[in-house]
Amino acid sequence: MISVIIPTFNEEELLTATLQCIDANKKSREIIVVDAGSDDDTVKIAEKAGARVLHSPLRQRAAQMNCGVKEAKGNYLLFLHADTCIPDNAIDCVEQALTDNKVVGGAFIRRFDHPSLFLKLTCRLADTRSRLFGWHFGDQGIFVKRSIFDKTGGFSERNYLEDIDFSRRLKHYGKVVTLNLHLLSSGRRFGRSPIRRTLKDLLITFNYLVDN
Questions:
Q1: How far apart are CA 35 and CA 105, in angstroms?
Q2: Alpha-carbon distance 126 to 191, whole Å?
Q3: Residue partners of 85: CB distance under 8 A and separation at least 6
Q4: Average of pLDDT values for 144-158?
Q5: Does residue 115 contact residue 47 with C-beta atoms inside 8 Å?
Q6: Mapping DSSP to helix (H, G, I), strand (E, B) and coil, where does residue 4 land?
Q7: pLDDT band per the 50, 70, 90 thresholds, residue 123
């Protein structure tokens, strides 16, 4: 079984679509929503959809995901953002990938629900980065074998780039793959200025790589 772990905070607007996409996958799975004190209907939406809701005292994505893993029952783990939709064969493809003894984890190709041509280009470039280096961001839907996750020590509870940090460490344990399936994430964080936000993200990533 695969455990799908979703960290949330005030995600009532987009969480329903994410949960419906997971539900369209007919493979055996559990959904764990780790909420960090939402004051909207996030928890109600998750519970109504049949997800198991955990409450995190810390509003930090890495800490919330680690919290979810502690309660997870699956042999495989899939981490999703609350605004990210997966195709209806995604879980089956994850399971197929992880049955390979050489493969320890991976992620999908990402796309954004945003009209910007610039973002479409950056996604194409990110596809190449993922395949060449095995570096994955959280909106790509990172997946991993539970036994390997435990060996890595989990996500470093940092306030940014816990996803890249984890995927870089994951490579030490075996093969990391990028599935040729598109996840669709909300483009809300880019607003009307995707170039400015992308340059800011690149600067943060550069500083992380210099320090690590």
A1: 25
A2: 20
A3: 17, 18, 21, 183, 184, 185
A4: 96
A5: no
A6: strand
A7: confident
For the record, the structure tokens of 111 come out as: 């796309």
pLDDT band of residue 208 (cuts 50, 70, 90) is confident
Q: Is the pLDDT of residue 181 over 90?
A: yes
Helices of type H across the chain: 15-23, 42-48, 61-71, 90-98, 117-133, 146-152, 162-170, 194-211
Are residues 54 and 33 in contact, defined by beta-carbon separation less than 8 angstroms? yes
Q: Torsion angle of alpha carbons 141, 92, 30, 61, nearest 10°?
A: -10
d(CA 70, CA 149): 11
Do 86 and 25 form a contact (C-beta atoms < 8 A)?
yes
DSSP state of 99: T
- Which residues have C-beta within 8 Å of that of residue 199, sequence separation ≥ 6? none
